[in-house]
Structure formats: structure tokens, C-alpha cells
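Our collaborator T.R. sent over the components below with a one-line note: 'Predict the complex.' Nothing else. No constraints on interfaces, no templates requested, no preferences about which chain binds where. So this is a plain run: every listed entity goes in together, and whatever single assembly comes back becomes the starting point for the next discussion.
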Amino acid sequence: MDLPAFVSLLGFSEKGWGPALLTAAGMTVLLSASGVVLGALFGGLAAFARLKGGRLARGTADAYCTLFRGVPDLLTIYLLYFGGSSLLTAVGRFFGAQGFVGLPTFATGVLALAIISGAYQAEVYRGAFLAIPAGQIEAARALAMPGPLMLRRIILPQLLRYAIPGLGNVWQLILKDSALLSVIGLVELMRQSQIGAGSTRQPFVFYIAAAVLYLVITFISGALIRRAEKRSLRGVRRA
Amino acid sequence: MDIAFFQDVFLRLLGGVPLTLQLAGISLSIGFVLAVVLAIALHNASPLVVLPLRGYVALFRGTPLLVQIFLIYYGLGQFRPSLQAMGVWWLFREPYWCVILALTLNTAAYGAEILRGGLQSVPAGQIEAALACGMSRGLLYRRIVLPLAFRQALPAYGNEIILMVKGTSLASIVTLLEVTGIAHQIISQTYRAIEVFICAGAIYLILNFAITRALAWLEHRLSPHLRPPPAARSATQKGEAA
Amino acid sequence: MRHIFKWLAASALSLAAVTGAQAQTAPKAITIATEGAYAPWNFTGPDGKAAGFEVDLAKDLCARMKIECTIVIQDWDGLIPALTVGKFDVIMASMFITDKRLEVIDFSRPYAIDPSSFAVAKTSALAKSGLGGKFDLNKEGEAQASIDKIKPLVKGQTIGVQAATTNQQFLKKYFDGVVDIREYKTTEQHDLDLAAGRVDGLFAQQTSLAATLAKPEYAEFEIAGPGFLGGVFGRGTGAGFRKTDTALRDQFNAAIGEAIADGTIKRLSEQWLKSDVTPPQ
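Returned assembly:
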């Protein structure tokens, strides 16, 4: 393959795939970010249930974490894609709605990533909570701090500090997992490179381009996470 | 609920378990050996060696496994004449070996990072003590450094093993008929996606549950020094690892 | 934990409310799914939009029926499961009307008829045999005789075919144990592996093979042996519907009839497929 052909294939001219690939990379970031944010809700609830919940809540949260960490993410995505609509349709029928209820592909993708990342985030939050020195909470109680205030002033800031490295790992994992959403036809980076590879019959060029774009995204987000980690440790004395 | 259908699907999917285990087993074994070598090199070698190795680790940790499989299978397929000239086409011709290659390179990169962390955690005093006893470099690694590093890295490596078992499900995308591949085949005959995927999910869950139990047992066996003595156990509650 | 369920139920309901409203206006606006990886019948351009014979035909039919259509792309092996769970309303993805599929979904009348064949190297035994013609698998004697002639010529070879297709069923039924069948998710992928030399030949629809073989990398390959129709291939290519959507199906039948009568299908198929695949009226 000569260089000019390579450039025009991935370039920004009319026949080039550059804009399509960049848009798809943006889609990848958007999907992963939405998935991790929504997953924080699932993960937070699961962590809370495992730490403070009754037996039933703890069991459910345990089952949730074990299930989605043990089943291949590809299967979780397929199941949600095919199962999600049936479930919604059934719920819709129950409340009197007619016909089929579709879950849009984007929503399915975000929900899948949220459920998977939630199972991993639960562990991160639980570990971070346990890392908060008990004296801090006792001290807050001794000052008669009300619960919500204690959560806002004492627990959450420290929780976040301990959770940042773990959350960074979850983010990198989900970023790569988002490639699996290509199987449900969501045009993110992986799917776009498959389309390009198929229609130009230059698989090597497109998969290399995809790999490079993923690397760029992981590098930039890795640097941001390290910065956040450093900032969160401003007030900590190093041993 | 159609119990007979579930039973039939489950039995047919079990036929894919040997291939799933083969893919995971072979790539994890070779990947582990590579990871040990890589981790030691990353820990000790000169920057000239470390830099390209870091590049490899970053490449495989920074891109999705799916991209790696496609790149190795369809991407390299474009270079058949050169691969034939090098005499390695037989390897790249078969989807089986392409998937093993991708999984191995992937797990070796992750494993190297995990083991490097383990090596870093070995207390300097231990190494100094061994050197003071006049241990050779090889003996030092065999008797002191590697056992301590492995013990430290075991929980993280356990996660990696489970991720690999899950990762084999991607082999179905390059024509291999492991559990997920067979699931797709059954769906194409019955069009009942949900039931089939539930069965496949159950199989992976059972596999991973067995692995988790085995690892927990191994971890327990390797850490008698971290457990409180039997008398104290009832008094102090065992702290959970975060 | 109860919070999670409450939250899930609430969000599911709000989504249901939004999309449920759309579902009720279905007759005026529908979603048609295609595979987007089966050039020139349907494929995907750099902009991510579907194009090809079936996409143009779908637009033409929708204009005739005065229905607003959205075209979406869905992986081949997920097309029927996704239709039955309501991801979209119609499949137009070069899908053959077969008895097996009719158990699960409904079809329109055929809008195209296109036989399937092998594509192999020009130097192979099958290519040199000079076998040809067209065989209807419903006329068992003739078809079986032709298949028996092909068998020794392809024995032991690896043949690529798209998974979950009638082509795959054909190979399984008539060539199981004779050739090594390798199943791919898309035809684009088996095309790549033919060029890479991982498979000795392909088995697919003639029009699709012709489009692939026209590309310079495939100069050493050709369509060889006879074309096959009927039997496992069913009654031609039709649009798929959920069994409950009979009104929509009848509307499509009428529109396809018009498109056959006024030569639209002939024009579009000659433009995209380089041959006339119009079914009998």
C-alpha cells in the first residue's frame, strides 16, 4: 500500500473516512461516559446495600455484582438488546399501552454499559468507604453532625479520594467494552471501522486507525485521571 | 417456560465448553510465562529494553480485545504473500491460532502490569537479607522475590483469569464455535435469542464461579501468615480486603 | 435495593410512555431494517447510511404507500429476533422466503429471485468442469444429479458461507462432510477471507458474488457450477413482517405488485445488481 492511498482513505476529503471515524470516536466517548455516570448510580446503590442493607438487599446486591462480573459482557449486551424490548413491551401492555415498545439502540448501549460498570463500581465504592478511618465518622457523630451533612462534608469527599484510582480502572474497562456495542449496530468507533473495512476491503488500515484512536482516548483520559488523583491528594501527607 | 427447550439448548452449549476452556487455558498459560518475563524485564532492565516493552503493554491495554482480534485475523490476512514468505502463514490461516495469539498477547500485557505491581511490593528488607546471606540472583528470585510477588498479585491475577474466560466469547466473531458461537448457531435455527443467551450466560457463570472458588482456596492456602491464630479468630472479626 | 427497583420501574415506564406513543401511529411511519453488509443489495457508506438495491426499492415502495420510512441497520443473525421483539417493523435484507422462517415471521410476496452458486479459483476443478445451468431443488432428481456431479470436484475444500442463511442450510443439507463449512457473520468477512486464502471458495447469491468478483483482488476467482433455486431457498426474496402486522404486509404486497408491473424492479436491479431479478407477476 502506498502512502497517498492511505492518506486519501482516512483523510477528510469527500471520499475520505476521517470525519466518520472521528465522529464515531466521539460516540464511543459519549457512550462510555453516559454508561459510567449512570453506572455510578447502580454501583452506589449496590455498595450501599452491601454495606448497610438488610439480608435481602445485601443478597440482591451480591447477586448483581457476581452476575455481571461473571457473564461475558458480549452476552449482557445481547441479552439487554433482545430482552430489553420484550420486557418494556410487557410492562407497557400491563399499563395498557398498545403494540411494541422499543428501547432505542443508544439507550440500550448506555444501559448495558451502566449495568456492567455498576457491578464493578460497587466494589470500588465499598472498598473506598471501608478505607475511611472510623475515627472520622466517630468524630462527626461526637459533634452531633446530622447524617446528610456528615455524608456531604466527611464521607463523600474522602470516599471520592479513595475511589479515584479504582474509578479510573472502571473507566478504561468500559471504554474498551463500548467496542462490543458494535454488535447491536450502534455506530461507534469499532462499528465504523468494520463498515470501512468491509466496504473498502482494507481491513488493516481501518483496524489500525481504530486502535490508534482508542489509544489516544485512553492516553488522554489516563492523564486526566492521574491529575484528578494528584489533586485529590493535595492535603495528604506522604509517608 | 419451556423447560425441555432450555435443557436441549444447555446440553448443546456444553459442547462448546471444551473449546472455550482450551482457548482460555492455552492463552493464559503462555500469557503467564510471557507476563513473568515481561514483568521482570520492566522491573529491572535498562530503559532501552523497557521503552519498547512499555509500548507493547500500553498498546494491548489501551485498545479493545475485539480490535486486537480483528486486526490479527482480518488485518494480517491482507498480507498473506509476505506471511507465506516468512513461513508463518499456517499460523495466521487458522482462526483458532489467531484468537489464541490475540488472547495471549492481551493477557500477557495485563499480567505483566499486575506482576510488576507484585514485584514492587516485595519489601526491600527481604531482598537485602537474601543478598546478605550471599544468595545468587537466580536463587533470590526463585526463593524470595517471585513467591512474595505472586502472593501479592494473586487477587488481581484472578480477576484477569476471569476476564480472559469472558474474553473467549469474542472468538465467535471470527468463525470459532465455542459456547457463544454455538449460541449464535442455535439462535439462527430457532430465532429464540433470549432463552439461548440466558443458557450461555449460566454456563459462563458456572465456569467463573468454579474459578473464583479455586482462587479463593489458593489464596487462603498461601496466606496462613495473614490469618489470626485459631484462638484469636473468634475474638476479632476478620477484616475484609477492599 | 428497593430503590433500584423503584428507579428501574420508573425509568422503564417513562421510556414506555415516550416510545409507546410512537408505536400507536405505526401505519403512517415505520422502520425498515436491512443488514448493510451485503453489497450491492444493501451496504453502508462512509456516512453510516444504508444504500443499495433494497434501500432504493424500500424508498420507492414507501412513496407508493405514502408511509414515512426510516431505514436502520441490524446484524444479519439478529434480524428476525429483533423484528419479533419489535425493534423495527419490516425486514428488507435479501432474505429468502422459506418455510422455516414462515414459522416465526410473515413475508410479503417475493420482490426478487436470484439463484445461489459457488465462487472458486479459476484454476480449480469445479471451474474447469464446465458445469452450469440452473436447478430447482423442488425437482429433486435433476438437482440431486447435478449436486452429485459437483461433490467430487469440491471434496475436502473449505467453503465460506454467511451464518444463519439459506446458503448455509443448503451446504449443510447437501455438502455436509464433503466440504469444510466455515460460517461468517457477514459476506464482507468471507470475501476478505477468500482474498486472504483462508477459504477455497464461497457459496452465496450470484448477484452478490458477481459484485465481489468484479473487484481487482478477486481476478483469479469466478462463479462456477450451476445456480440453485427453490427447496431450502424457498420462494425468492421478500420483505419480513411480524405475524400480527397483516395490514402492513398487504399494503407491501400491493406496492410490490405495482413495482413489478411498471418495471421499477427491473430498472433498479439492472442499475444495482447488473442483472434482472424481477419475479413473475
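Summary for T.R.: Chain C touches chain B at residues 77-78, 80-81, 84, 104, 163-164, 168, 182-185, 189, 192-193, 195-198 (CB under 8 Å).
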